[in-house]
Amino acid sequence: MRVLIVGCGRLTTALVPDLAESGFEITVVSRLRECLESLSEIPGVQVVLTTEPAMQEFLQQAGVDTVDIFLALSDDDHRNALVSQIARYIYNVPKVICHLDNPQLQIFYTGLGMDVVGHSIGLLQDIHQAISK
Questions:
Q1: Where residue 45 falls among pLDDT bands split at 50, 70, 90?
Q2: Are 66 and 47 in contact (CB under 8 A)?
């Protein structure tokens, strides 16, 4: 299965090794060069350095039109919501998971039918469960 992740931070760096060990092909899109460099050493992981990951051209460069799972894991709720909607409604990605910290946005986007994970102690487990649904 192919996974595209937008955003590179602690959450992404904790999740990617587990997904790679499980056999997923992973592409990570981010503006953070150092974070991407640390992930690029993991077998099965490709990285794309961008200036603006919400732009469709960067998503296309990362292969959004061929992925099975899209994860929006940046530290910006609004960016996550935007790229999740682009992945779902423009590129028809089968499974889109959006990380949102703001409880009001979580309720709103869940009501729109999006798979939303929020800040919790078991966030990695929540993401793994959302992937396997």
A1: very high
A2: no
